[in-house]
Amino acid sequence: MKVAVIVFPGTNCEMDTKYACEKLGANVSLVFHKEDKLPSDIRLVILPGGFSYGDYLRSAAIAKFSPIMQDVIRFANEGGNVLGICNGFQMLLEMQLLPGAMKRNANVHFISKFHHLKVINTANKFLHLFKENDILNIPIAHGEGNYFIDEAGLRDLYANDQVLLQYVDAQGRISNPNGSLDSIACICNKERNVFGLMPHPERAIEELLGSSDGVDMLRGLLA
Amino acid sequence: MKVKVNVQLKNGVLDPQGKAVHHALHSLGFDSVQGVRIGKQILLDIDESEDVEQSIKNMCEELLANTVIEDYEIEIEK
After folding, report:
1. pLDDT tens-place string over residues A32-91
2. Chain B residues touching residue A149 (CB < 8 angstroms)
3. Which of A133, A154, A179, A184 is the most buried if burial means most Cβ atoms within 10 Å?
4. In A, which residues are within 8 Å of B14 by CB distance?
5. A27, A212 contact by CB (below 8 A)
């Protein structure tokens, strides 16, 4: 399967993301943000983590104006699968391909550590290889992961099974590292082809490095 | 012409930075502080034109503010 990983000035997770997808058999192209077209036959677009444009103004505020983004929006609107990891999730929010917005972490610190996550919904391509209530352990690394959406928006998310992962502790009890509303770590759009999460599945693909819980997320989208 | 754009988290949206600064001010003994909200001020130097106000509004909607969580105010210095 052909995968495009988009690279912006300040992106720093593109090689890890490429490596993880290639390990699962994908054919990965790194696509520079100045391109205006995705390569042909792309089946999955990944917006990787990092600090696009130095997080100037707001995280991901400027990346949405990169030339390639018009084609990413077209791809998403035509039903193509798009995954935004960390800064990529922030981009999807800024582009309004996903609802809501990110604020500074509640404790105002950059948080970088492993964190447990609970699988809330599996009726989607991203998490279909898991079972509901599975507890995963995947690294997070962000300063603005404090997800916010208004009350009506939150009701909509739950009504349409768009809340996919929550931050929890090892026993599955809510444990919220960043103040995110309802401890939300991952959502998708109503059509379930655009996915955004703050944790880094591409950093959890080897037991030797602490966890391989990210493998089945990526495999879910690559299958 | 000079234009000031003030961007602020909406009322009702908890401001983590404001809260941290509020707490720090209390630690310093400034107990009279009842609340702190932190925003951004963006100074623009713009060519004058007839539709400049609409143009600044568009800038705020498209880039300068994230209107999901932020409000903006435009001050034009005549």
Report:
1. 999 999 999 999 999 999 999 999 999 999 999 999 999 999 999 999 999 999 999 999
2. 68
3. A184
4. 103, 106, 179
5. no
Q: How many CB pairs under 8 A join A and B?
A: 37
Domain A2-222, CATH class in plain words: alpha beta
pLDDT tens readout for residues A53-63: 999 999 999 99
**Does the CA dihedral B16-A87-A182-A178 come out positive or negative?**
negative
Q: Please, what's the b/e burial string for A173-186 (b: 16 or more CB within 10 A of its CB; e: otherwise)?
A: eebbbbbbbbbbbb
Query: What mean pLDDT value characterizes chain A?
Result: 97
Distance (Å, rounded) from C-alpha A44 to C-alpha A80? 7
| Closest Cα in chain B to A61 | B63
Q: Does domain B2-77 have CATH number 3.30.1280.10?
A: yes
Residues of A in contact with B13 (CB under 8 A): 103, 148
CA distance B10 to A34: 34
Q: Give the integer Cα–Cα distance in Å for A117 and A128.
A: 15
Q: Which one of A101, A107, A146 has the shortest CB-CB distance to B68?
A: A101
| Out of B16, B64, B69, closest to residue A105 by CB | B16
Query: Which of B68, B70, B71, B72 to mutate to probe the A interface, most A CBs <10 Å?
Result: B68
Dihedral sign, CA of A135, A140, A146, A151? negative
User: What are the boundaries of each domain within chain A?
Assistant: 2-222
Spell out which residues of chain B touch residue A62, defining contact as CB-CB under 8 Å.
63
Residue with tokens 């995963």: A136
Q: Do residue A179 and residue B20 have CB atoms under 8 angstroms apart?
A: no
**E strand or H helix that includes residue A165:** strand A163-168
Rounded to two decimals, the pTM is 0.94
Domain ranges of chain B: 2-77
